[in-house]
Amino acid sequence: xxxxxxxxxxxxxxxxxxxxxxxxxxxxxxxxxxxxxxxxxxxxxxxxxxxxxxxxxxxxxxxxxxxxxxxxxxxxxxxxxxxxxxxxxxxxxxxxxxxxxxxxxxxxxxxxxxxxxxxxxxxxxxxxxxxxxxxxxxxxxxxxxxxxxxxxxxxxxxxxxxxxxxxxxxxxxxxxxxxxxxxxxxxxxxxxxxxxxxxxxxxxxxxxxxxxxxxxxxx
Length: 219
Description:
Blueprint: E1 8-9, H1 10-18, H2 20-27, H3 36-48, E2 52-56, E3 59-69, E4 74-85, E5 91-100, H4 109-125, E6 131-136, E7 141-146, H5 149-168, H6 178-181, H7 187-190, H8 192-195, H9 202-216
Parallel strand pairs: 1-4, 5-6
Antiparallel strand pairs: 2-3, 3-4, 4-5, 6-7
């Protein structure tokens, strides 16, 4: 069992699978920069992350609920959880639904996040969560995701890697890949083409630039 201070944010799973350096910049160096994609995603989640619920007999929808798993060491928020209720009032089934801008992706960056939510719901409601759903704004439909063995294993491997990087406190070196780097909100801070394989920390680079500017100004 993990304590509150050791819980891994579910959002970090998406970051580390997209790019380990992006994860480190956001969660270790604490830097962030908005771009069109992150701004659109933020607006989308603001629409659905207001806590409220809708219900009818043996079915309930909960929006924007905080979740955690002390057993697996995870914490985060579900955009929507659909609960199928048992006649005795308990929860018979729980389905997490994550809202995303864009379209369905071949890679697992969204699916691991959904799987982590499933882990938390299983611990909260004491029921197995076999499927989750992703709603992509550009497609205007839901995609069902099987929360199966391979996805569960991959998700926990990413959690382990996050703990490894967090413990070391290191930022992986920059490697420029056009397909991912050009879509990243941290492109200008990351400097993948100039930072190279030296693994330069952005915070140290910024501080060195500030010192150089002060020296030029005679401060």
